[in-house]
């Protein structure tokens, strides 16, 4: 089989030398074992890096054709960079594996992914076996993320990020999903086909800094929820019904107070009610506005990415 490895990179000059060395060793071993073909490739996707990441990718390609490079015209974010790499190689490979460049994903899991592919599975998810190495805060927020996504109606694989194998047929199906707001962890399960999981122990980042601080993780979670589910809007509708029911109770209470001669009392309750309802309304407008904004972006049909250069075996395409 021809296996391509797609790796999005943003300012990864600190890890690229070690990442490329380890991946080359792994690919060489797989080739010698007859598990993958000699035409298998490792593809780094430069997501508008500001350091020497692209120069290093070019050097790797010049030194060894096993390495390829895809350069985006500007920074488009991890999900778009990953999509760009997968769509670029989908017609050249039998299957593609996506992973991050920081060496936290165990590359030894590739062997089992290939075995599962040979057993007939078209999508193989890499799933973390445990989070013992995470801090309490990281572990709690990560687990809360998956539980929140499930509660919001988003179908995801628990403890799975973007380390997965997809067959060519699965990649072709993925290419039909045209939405601009990408959340691949939720989209890939919608593709269907026969799937399974492979467990692995996630390691420490080899070098460099994490590209997903807390603020970005919260933004990513919100993006995933609003891109894959309308449940927040339904929750607002339910909240509106509940507030209306409470207002009826308040109306009856107010009428009773009026007819019993207690019309002056209750100004505190009235003030609190006004502020509470105002806050709920602003929150509802904000959530609905987020969905309207996404509709606005989708109707423009702007490209998710623009490739400025592609380093392959034959030539360099501008």
SS field, number of helical segments: 10
Q: Gyration radius, to the nearest Å?
A: 25 Å
Q: Return the CATH architecture of the largest domain.
A: Alpha-Beta Complex
Strand order of the largest sheet: 7-5-6-4-1-2-3-8-9
CATH secondary-structure class of the largest domain:
Alpha Beta
How many domains, in number, for the residues? 2
What proportion of the residues is helical, as a percent range?
A: 40-55%
Mean pLDDT: 78
The SSE order reads: EHEHEHEHEHEHHEHHHEE
Q: Which structural class do you get from the secondary structure elements?
A: alpha/beta
**Are there runs of 5+ residues with pLDDT below 50, and where?**
none
CATH superfamily of the largest domain: Spore Coat Polysaccharide Biosynthesis Protein SpsA, Chain A
Gross morphology: elongated
């Amino acid at each position: 089989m021809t296996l391509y490895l797609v790796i999005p990179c943003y300012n990864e000059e600190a890890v690229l030398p070690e990442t490329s060395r380890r991946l080359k060793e792994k690919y060489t071993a797989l080739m010698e074992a007859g598990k993958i073909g000699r035409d298998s490739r490792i593809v780094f996707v430069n997501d508008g890096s500001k350091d020497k990441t692209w120069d290093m990718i070019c050097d790797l390609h010049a030194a060894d054709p096993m390495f390829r490079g895809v350069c985006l015209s500007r920074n488009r974010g991890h999900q778009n960079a990953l999509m760009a790499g997968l769509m670029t190689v989908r017609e050249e490979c039998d299957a593609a594996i996506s992973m991050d460049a920081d060496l936290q994903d165990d590359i030894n899991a590739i062997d089992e992914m290939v075995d599962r592919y040979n057993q007939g599975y078209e999508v193989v998810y890499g799933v973390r076996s445990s989070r013992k190495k995470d801090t309490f805060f990281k572990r709690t927020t990560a687990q809360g993320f998956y539980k929140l996504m499930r509660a919001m109606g988003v179908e995801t694989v628990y403890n799975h990020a973007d380390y997965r194998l997809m067959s060519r047929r699965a990649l072709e199906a993925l290419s039909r999903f045209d939405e601009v707001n990408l959340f691949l962890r939720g989209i890939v399960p919608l593709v269907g086909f026969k799937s399974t999981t492979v467990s692995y122990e996630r390691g420490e980042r080899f070098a460099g800094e994490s590209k997903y601080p807390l603020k970005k993780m919260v933004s990513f979670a919100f993006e995933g929820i609003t891109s894959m589910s309308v449940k927040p809007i339904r929750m607002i509708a339910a909240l509106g019904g509940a507030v209306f029911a409470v207002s009826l109770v308040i109306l009856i209470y107010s009428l009773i107070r009026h007819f019993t001669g207690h019309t002056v009392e209750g100004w505190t309750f009235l003030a609190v009610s006004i502020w509470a309802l105002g806050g709920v309304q602003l929150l509802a407008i904000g959530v609905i506005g987020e969905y309207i904004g996404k509709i606005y972006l989708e109707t423009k049909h702007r490209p998710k990415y623009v490739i400025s250069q592609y380093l392959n075996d034959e030539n360099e395409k501008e």
